[in-house]
Amino acid sequence: MNSATKVGVYALGLAVVFGGAAGVGKAAGPIGGTAEMASHEGGTGGHGTGGHGGAAAGHAPGGLQVSEDGYTLTPRTTIVTPGEKTDFRFTINGPDGKPVTGFTPLHGKRLHLIVAQRDLSGFQHLHPTEIGGGVWTVPIELPKPGVYRFFTDVQPDGAARQLTLGTDVFAPGDMRRTPLPQPERVAKVDGYEVRLTGGLTPGKSTELTLTVSKDGKPVTDLQPYLEAYGHLVALRQGDLAYLHVHPDGEPGDGETKPGPGITFFAEAPSAGAYRLYLDFKHGGEVRTAEFTVQAGDAGVPAEEPAHDDQPHTH
C-alpha cells in the first residue's frame, strides 16, 4: 500500500442507541487525502450509568457527527505526520460560527479529547489546554499511518446538554490495519491484570465489573482520576459509535471502595464487536486496559473489508 491507500466506507444500518434512537454511521477517507466529513445524528449523555456520549432520547450514539445542536468541532489541521509530535489545535464553534470560550466542567475538565484509529488501535485520552480565544491545543503523536477519529466531550455554556463531537484526522503513509484482538477476559498492562466479568447485550443495560490486581494481589487503593476510580470508553467496530461511561458512586461518598472492582452499566445498541478501554490510576500513574467484547451472535471479523468508496456528505 502507499499514501493513496484508501480506507473503506463502513455503513451500519442499525437500530442504534447508547440510550435511544436509530442512526447510521460511516467511516471513510483516502489516506493522505482531504478530510471530508459525513454528517450524522449524534448523541450525548450524563454521568453515572449514562456516562459521556450516551444517546439522549431522539439522538443516535455520540461521536458520529462533527456538528450537533449548532456546535461544531473544527480542527486547524486534518493531516498529521505519523510518528512525530504535533501541536494539534482546534476550536468548538458555536451557532454564531465563533469559537466557544465558556464550558461547564465534566469530571473536573472543561474538555475531554479521545483519539482512536479506525481499526480501534492507538487509543489516547487527552486533556487539551485552552490558549485563548477558544483555541485548544494538545501535543499528540499518532503512532502509524491511518485514519484516526477524534472525539470531544463538552458542554458549552448555553448548550442544552452535553455533546460528543467527532471528526477524522489523517496520518498519511502506508496503512497497515491492525486486526481486532479476539475477546478475552483478562487484560495485562504494566504488570497489572484487569479481569472483566459481565458482558454486553444488545438493547439491554448490562453490568460490567473490571477487577484490578497486581502481582496476584487485589488492588484496594486505586486513586481518584478525574473524580472517579475508573473511566470506560466503548467504541463499536465499523462506525466507532462512542460511549464513555463512569462507574456507580464516586470517591469520598462513604460507600464507593477504591478497588479492586469497578462496576459500570452500559447498553450496547446492536450486535457486533466493541472495544473497551478502561482508564485507572494507581501509584500516581494512569494506565489503560483494553478488551474486545462481543454483543449478540455476530462473529468478530479478523479485520474490516477495504473498499474504494470515497467519504460521503449527508
C-alpha end-to-end distance: 29 Å
**What's the order of the H and E elements?**
EEEEEEEEEEEEEEEEEEEEEE
Domain count, please report it.
Answer: 2
- Largest sheet at a glance? 5 strands, antiparallel
Q: Look at the structure and give the mean pLDDT.
A: 80
Number of helices: 0
Q: Low-confidence parts, pLDDT < 50 over ≥5 residues?
A: 1-58, 300-314
CATH architecture annotation name of the largest domain:
Sandwich
Structural class: mainly beta
Share of helix, binned:
under 10%
Report the C-alpha radius of gyration, rounded.
18 Å
How much of the sequence lies in strands comes to: 35-45%
CATH superfamily membership of the largest domain? Immunoglobulins
Annotated CATH topology of the largest domain = Immunoglobulin-like
Outline: globular
Structural description of this entry:
This protein is mainly beta and 314 residues long. The protein folds into two domains: 6-171, Sandwich (Immunoglobulin-like); 186-295, Immunoglobulins (Immunoglobulin-like), CATH 2.60.40.10. It is built from no helices and 22 strands. It has strands at 6-7, 12-14, 23-25, 29-30, 67-68, 71-75, 86-93, 112-117, 124-126, 129-132, 135-140, 146-154, 163-171, 186-189, 192-198, 205-214, 217-218, 231-236, 242-245, 261-267, 272-282, 285-295. Strands 5-6-7-11-10 form a five-stranded antiparallel beta sheet, with no helix packed on it. The chain is globular and about 50 Å long.
